[in-house]
Amino acid sequence: MGKYYITTPIYYVNASPHIGHAYTQIAVDALSRYRKMTGDNVFFLTGTDEHGEKIEQASREAGFKRGDEKKFVDGITDNFRKAWSGMGIEYDKFIRTTDEQHKTSVQDLVSRIKDNGDIYEGEYDGWFCTPCGTFWSAKQSEDGLCPDCKRPLEKIKEKNYFFSMGKYRDWLIEYINNNPDFIMPEFRKNEVLGFLREELGDLCISRPKTRSPWGIELPFDKEYVVYVWFDALTNYISGPVASGVFEEMWPPDVHVIAKDILRHHAVYWPIMLKSAGFELPRTIFAHGWWKMGGEKMSKSRGNIADPIALASKYGVDAVRYFVLKAVSFGMDGVFSEEALVSTYNSDLANDLGNLLNRTLTMVDKYFGGVAPAAPLDPGDADQAERSFETLMRYVPLLAPEIHSCMTSPELRLKEALESIMDLVGRANKYIEESAPWTHAKKGNTKAIELIIADLLEVLMTVAVSIYPFMPDTSKRMWSQLGLGGTPDTTREVSDPDTGLEGGHGVRRAFSPGTRVSKGEPLFMRVKEETAS
Ligand code: ME8
Q1: Record: fold of 337-530
Q2: Which of 60, 103, 412, 462 suits a disulfide with 405, CB 3.0-4.6 Å?
Q3: How far is the CA of 34 from the centre of ligand 1 (A)?
Q4: What is the residue with the minimal CA distance to atom 19 of ligand 1?
Q5: Ligand 1 center to 13 CA (angstroms)
Q6: In this predicted model, what pLDDT tens digit does every residue of 230-247 receive, in sequence order?
């Protein structure tokens, strides 16, 4: 039992959330729910990034006057909150960079860095990408386009404040090399080290108010606001401070981001923390991009999928399942509704939904809806079990396998889901191979008791295991299985030291005598052409 502080990026409020944003949220939600289930003290932080020229511009484009930016951001931040509650995201704190506590934390951090002698005044003569909020040197922006987003850069020359980042380069390289889990996946670490091989310049961390006053004032010069990335990264401090859990939770266990903002998190942020005297996060995990039409999904490219629309069409859990199962966490994925529908039909409707449905149908048919005990002496069932005797051996292996996936620095979410679906697949095969209906014809009751008890044990284990990924489906399975309590608080599943002993030599958590309650199918098959 430990503490687990996990974060998502805080999203820009110049647009509403799309499936790319939802992906990070869903992954972090699954990790956070898993840790809560295993008894960790979890702090899951998310929020919105509301300052800077980009937001000011969006506010203006939405028809708000200068000075009314707060009204604009209030509306959009609400869209994010609604979207997350619609996707079943249970965060512990939603931080906004316009919160008073956040402003105080940013000013404190900047002051600490200044007191440490790492902020100096100079002239900024270079390029700036307003949409990305990133400064670029002349060398980096040879063609006048942003190296990241390829949009035109703005040339600026003005007095500004700089953060002496360059002098920390060797320290950072050494830190990354000495802490193999600091940047994940491994290939991203190599990317950062490659980037650090080149000279690391200092970072311009101020914007004159004459250009854009929409930000947090520099504590030592009221004519300037803090550079938006300096402001935004500090949310990881202000979030737990505002919730009164900073002492308990610092440092972050994992910052989950996508690869687009790796440099900010793996270079700027650790150096800021080092200069200010804070302990560093344990892991920065950069996942891949969801693409559509060959390009990164983004509002500016107009190739976005709306997670809420998809959830209302196929259910929240289907969207959660699809995005986590489709790609290994860390890699890029190509989003298509057709692929979602195909996964929905095969994995959720055919495999998972069907397993529950046909098992409960048999409990009703052969046992009047009451779960049988697994006979210790299975009698004629011995013959029945020959072809499928391996199924129950996998049940106690599932929890440790999921634990290893969810707690490894690689955050193997896809593999965790695969191991659950593997058990589901085996159980379906078990039904085919053991053919309980043939035993029914022969009046071989012990065989059917054993088969059904095995299936109920598998279903209970699956209901608990899928909770972090598909909380609603897990609860629906739980209630159809007639179980008391909740899946996320049930500890005895697959624990070899608890439960009743029964056939196939496994201890069982599913209590015989439980009255099941078959309900609506978990997932109704959808026609493939429904996907638009
Ligand atoms: O960068 N595929 O905010 P942002 C996968 N405010 N993930 C995607 C994605 C895609 N196509 N598009 C967006 C910012 N994301 C800053 C962050 S943090 C201190 C400040 C997700 O609104 C992914 O998590 O541009 C990515 O890192 C984040 O949204 C960028 O969100």
Answers
A1: Isoleucyl-tRNA Synthetase; Domain 1 (1.10.730)
A2: 412
A3: 23
A4: 233
A5: 11
A6: 999 999 999 999 999 999
How far is C-alpha 327 from the geometric centre of its chain's CA atoms?
A: 13
Place of tokens 């900010």: 264
Kindly state the tokens that stand for 4. 């687990």
Ranges of each domain in the chain: 3-287, 337-530
User: Is there an atom of ligand 1 within 6 Å of 260 CB?
Assistant: yes
Q: Classify 448 in phi/psi space as left (phi over 0), alpha (psi -120 to 50) or beta.
A: alpha
pTM > 0.90: yes
Mean pLDDT calculated for residue range 517-525: 96
From the list 430, 344, 353, 417, the residue with the least C-alpha distance to 388 is 430
CATH number corresponding to 3-287:
3.40.50.620
Q: Which atom of ligand 1 is nearest to the CA of 286?
A: 27
141-171 tens-digit pLDDT: 878 899 888 899 998 888 999 999 999 999 9
Choose the residue to mutate in 6, 13, 14, 23 for probing ligand 1, maximizing ligand atoms within 8 Å of C-beta. 23
pLDDT at site 529:
67
Distance CA 506, CA 454 (A): 9
Q: State which of 76, 260, 263 you would mutate to test the pocket of ligand 1, scoring each by most atoms of that ligand within 8 A of its C-beta.
A: 260
Choice from 11, 53, 54 to test ligand 1 binding pocket (greatest atom count within 8 A of CB): 11
Nearest CA to ligand 1 atom 23: 258
Q: What is the mean pLDDT of residues 353-362?
A: 98
**pLDDT given for residue 208 in this prediction:** 92
Query: Residues 180-209: pLDDT tens digits?
Result: 999 999 999 999 999 999 889 999 999 999
